[in-house]
């Protein structure tokens, strides 16, 4: 029996204290990890192998077919990479430049604007270690980490004893939930749950800013002013506050201007930071690398040494307009996460799916290349949701190729 500590790549927390028991190259037991992490670490890739037109082939044949598709495409799309290693992401960006591809990831319809604002230093942020050690006021806004990131509260935010918060949640931390429903996280927050109607976040922010400024807060949905003033007083007393922002908030507001205003006022009264609740283990890493290369975090089009950017280069708009004629999908499943009215257009073009598991996308793909599970069967590095770099080793060994190896072979063949 072997027993070591590993990094879990099951979500954006990249927990690095996972204990695993393995025997004969099979993970038997996983300790410390949450239910998401246990399922991820014990995931069985299976011998799916390689397919072309749903017919089993060898690796070389699958790669040759993928290369042929990319060579013949006038405007290929590369999409995904949120769960890929840093090494794979760098290769994908190089590949996109080489074949003049449109390049996008899920942040274009999730938390991309927030990640971009943080990268540009337009919003104040901090690390999860800072939260654990210093935070006294914690807001979970439009997110339910008890379900999506189960160890956020126990390992990093509300419950742990920090170096400057030894008395923890009982005496030194206040947890607040702002959401449209009473989630599991909201129940933990108790009386500090503020339930607002769908699309009511912008108004609530304006009312909260009014309360922070000593004015009487008002909303069209008649949220009790006394409750908003109560919240404002808690926030003004924060020595180290943090807001974990989820998609519930981002989808509710038209742009980030309300957040900019709120953070400006909060930091005039107290000390507040913001962390996006990204789900994929390395989507922040992809955003950072693409921004360093192009000045944008997603939705770019490479064309003969130049870079174009705009919503028309996102996967959603590209498929709507039918401007792409081939797609390389890496480590994600657009057939499951995008509306049918949009994703049905993928059925009209050749699709290459590179993934560690069988998905709706892989089942409909012209070429399917089955790869290792990053962090379980292959190592590498990634960027945690707070921007901290993390390296990891494989838990078990396999002869199956990683995404990085496959992209290198495609690049060489091109």
UniProtKB/TrEMBL annotation:
Enzyme Commission identifier(s): 1.2.99.5
GO CC term, one of those recorded: membrane
Keyword Mitochondrion found: no
Any GO MF annotation of the entry: formylmethanofuran dehydrogenase activity
GO biological process: methanogenesis; respiratory electron transport chain
Alphabetical keyword list: Oxidoreductase
Primary enzyme class: oxidoreductase
InterPro entries: Formylmethanofuran_DH_bsu (IPR016457), Prok_molybdopt-oxidoreductase (IPR050123)
Protein known as: Formylmethanofuran dehydrogenase subunit B
UniProt lineage: Archaea, Methanobacteriati, Methanobacteriota, Stenosarchaea group, Methanomicrobia
């Amino acid at each position: 029996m072997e027993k070591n500590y590993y990094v879990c790549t099951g979500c954006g927390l990249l927990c690095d204290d996972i204990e695993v028991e393995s025997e004969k190259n099979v993970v038997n037991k996983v300790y410390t990890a949450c239910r998401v992490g246990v399922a991820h670490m014990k995931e069985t890739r299976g011998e799916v192998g390689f397919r072309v037109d749903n017919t089993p082939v060898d690796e070389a044949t699958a790669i040759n077919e993928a290369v042929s598709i990319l060579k013949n495409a006038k405007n290929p799309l590369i999409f995904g990479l949120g769960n890929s290693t840093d090494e794979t992401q760098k290769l994908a960006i190089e590949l996109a430049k080489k074949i003049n591809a449109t390049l996008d990831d899920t942040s274009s319809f999730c938390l991309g604007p927030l990640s971009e604002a943080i990268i540009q230093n337009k919003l104040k942020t901090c690390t999860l270690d800072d939260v654990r050690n210093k935070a006294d006021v914690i807001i979970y806004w439009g997110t339910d980490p008890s379900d999506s990131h189960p160890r956020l509260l126990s390992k990093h935010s509300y419950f742990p004893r920090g170096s400057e918060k030894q008395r923890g949640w009982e005496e030194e931390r206040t947890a607040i939930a702002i959401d449209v429903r009473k989630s599991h996280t909201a129940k933990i927050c108790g009386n500090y749950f503020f339930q607002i109607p769908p699309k009511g976040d912008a108004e609530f922010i304006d009312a909260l800013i009014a309360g922070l400024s000593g004015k009487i807060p008002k909303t069209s949905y008649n949220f009790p002013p006394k409750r908003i003033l109560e919240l404002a007083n808690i926030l003004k007393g924060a020595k180290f506050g943090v807001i974990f922002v989820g998609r519930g908030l981002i989808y509710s507001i038209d742009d980030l201007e309300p957040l900019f205003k709120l953070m400006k006022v909060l930091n005039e009264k107290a000390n507040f930071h913001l962390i996006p609740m990204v789900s994929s283990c390395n989507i922040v890493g992809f955003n950072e690398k693409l921004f360093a290369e192009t000045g944008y975090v997603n939705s770019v089009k490479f064309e003969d040494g130049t870079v174009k950017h705009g919503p028309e280069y996102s996967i959603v708009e590209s498929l709507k307009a039918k401007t792409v004629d081939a797609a390389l999908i890496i480590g994600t499943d657009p057939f499951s996460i995008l509306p049918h009215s949009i994703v049905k257009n993928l059925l009209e073009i050749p699709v290459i799916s590179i993934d560690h598991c069988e998905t709706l996308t892989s089942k409909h793909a012209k070429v399917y290349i089955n790869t290792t599970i990053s962090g379980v069967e292959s190592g590498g590095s990634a960027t945690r949701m707070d921007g901290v770099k993390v390296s990891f080793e494989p838990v078990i060994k396999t002869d199956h190729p990683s995404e990085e190896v496959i992209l290198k072979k495609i690049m060489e063949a091109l």
